[in-house]
Hints:
Radius of gyration of chain A: 13 Å
Oligomer: heterodimer
Shape of chain B: globular
Structural class of chain A: mainly beta
Helix content of chain B: 25-40%
Helix content of chain A: under 10%
Number of helices of chain B: 13
Number of strands of chain A: 8
Largest interface: A-B, 45 and 41 residues
Strand order of the largest sheet of chain A: 2-1-7-5-6
Largest sheet of chain A: 5 strands, mixed
Amino acid sequence: xxxxxxxxARFSFDGSPxxxxxxxxxxAALWASGVRSWRSTRHEGRPRGLFCGIGVCFDCLxxxxxxxxxxxxxxxxxxxxxxxxQVGSGSDGG
Amino acid sequence: xxxxxxxxxxxxxxTAGVVDVVVVGAGPAGLAAAxxxxxxxxxxxxxxxxxxxxxxxxxxxPAGPGxxxxxxxxxDRLAEGLRGQVAAGRVDHRPDHQVWRLxxxxxxxxxxxxxxxVVVHAVTGGRGADGEVPVTLRARAVVVATGAHDxxxxxxxxxxxxxxxxxxxxxxxxxxxxxxxxxxxVGGSGPFLxxxxxxxxxxxxxxxxxxxxGDGRGWLRGWRGLAAGTDRxxxxxxxAAVLARHRVRPRLRHAVVAAHGxxxxxxxxxxxLDAGGAIVPGSGRQVAADTVAVGWGFTARVDLxxxxxxxxxxxxxxxxxxxxxxxxxxxxxxxxVAGELLGxxxxxxxxxxxxxxxxxxxxxxxxxxxxxxxxxxxxxxxxRRATAFAHTxxxxxxxxxxxxxxxxxxxxxxxCEEVRLGRLHEAIDVLGATDPxxxxxxxxxxxxxxxxxxxxxxxxxxxxxxxxxxPEPGWNVRPVAVxxxxxxxxAGDDDPS
Lengths: 94, 497
């Protein structure tokens, strides 16, 4: 797994820094950091993370810089992104 | 509308230009089609949803092809062809474009003497914080080369985090440099399981079980066929050597029939299958694992071609293909298909079908006849041979017909809408559904974000099994092939015609 490099690029996941290498997706960087789930489902509140890994299944949705329903597996990691766990549809009331 | 031959005329947001050939997808088939069409004199735009060309097979990170790249020579040839055509201004490669709808010429505007145009609706951007930008192109011919994704079947616990597709494992490794797990069980069916297990071992992971539902007789036969025209028998021997070195012995006629854990997978049950694919009673054995990769071959992405009016046909692997002639021409003039849409057959076949489709697309766009059979005899012959092999492989790795028996009423069928098998059965037994469409309306199975890509094929089988009918190919074609924001949809609909 990707080693934690103290001087490397990071984004924020629920307030904690997550390191990534150039070209990695948000989902791959989270996976490399040992995070396996970042969404809880709408009906049963069950944890979900990567499944298809190539943008097909929409299981790995999370919120990026305030935008809900972003696929972690195809969202490029960028320094300073504010990535958050998505609960339910991520857009309740909206 | 005037024929606009300038590539400048088809910039993003501009709907005035007309392109000779639009190729959807930049995998083996799409790249081959683009290079061939451009060589024949057509102006080509390639729209691809990936950031880099190569598709799933030649997936790569920003630094280019890495250690796990297959058929490096084939890739280098196509990549060089693409670079040359891009430099010459004949191919405009646009990454990060998701095509969401294809309107056949019956629905689109005309193009004077050349007949009706195909309209391609796409969006770009939208990953991360930026909004989606709609892109609409009109084309004289379109080659749909959208490839395939892993075919998945529901099983108890498959929704647990840590259960992945084999394609996800490869994408993590090849594009992102991430090893999917420490102890990874690999299962399902098909030759793709071998490179996945091998790459995991080479990357330092343990593979406590590698299970193939087939009986193995197809494996060797299949790999011999794959060797037709390429050096893939050597590739297979390489996998076997790595597996032997790590003392991983594939277990044939076995399957991962359940995954266990609370908030992530911790173990799986591996069971022996009988000839019909039913679990042999008492054969189940738990295997500890932090990650599981299960896949059953591939599902071709046929949505766009079918939207445009092409005809769905059953493919030899039990999935859905698009009806087409040897050049990839569908029933819709100007709409061609290449690669896995013709029946899943792997990259070497995809390149051949891409070249044929590129040739025919350019001919259609430029108002010429397709080359006479003698001029493309070698391509046609190699295509026939590779197709025959693909059929052999597909029948050697069938989805075990008994798989619905592995599920219980609590098994999640639709991951997006969290529909369990019990509700699907209720829709059939109590509410009277007799086909997948009705079952979908009653339960929301296949109505979620993925639009049924993960569960439509399985749902069709599960409904058919319960009702005693035959599964329907292509029943779940959606008017919009990827989820869009309402803004993008509205902008796309505004498109003047």
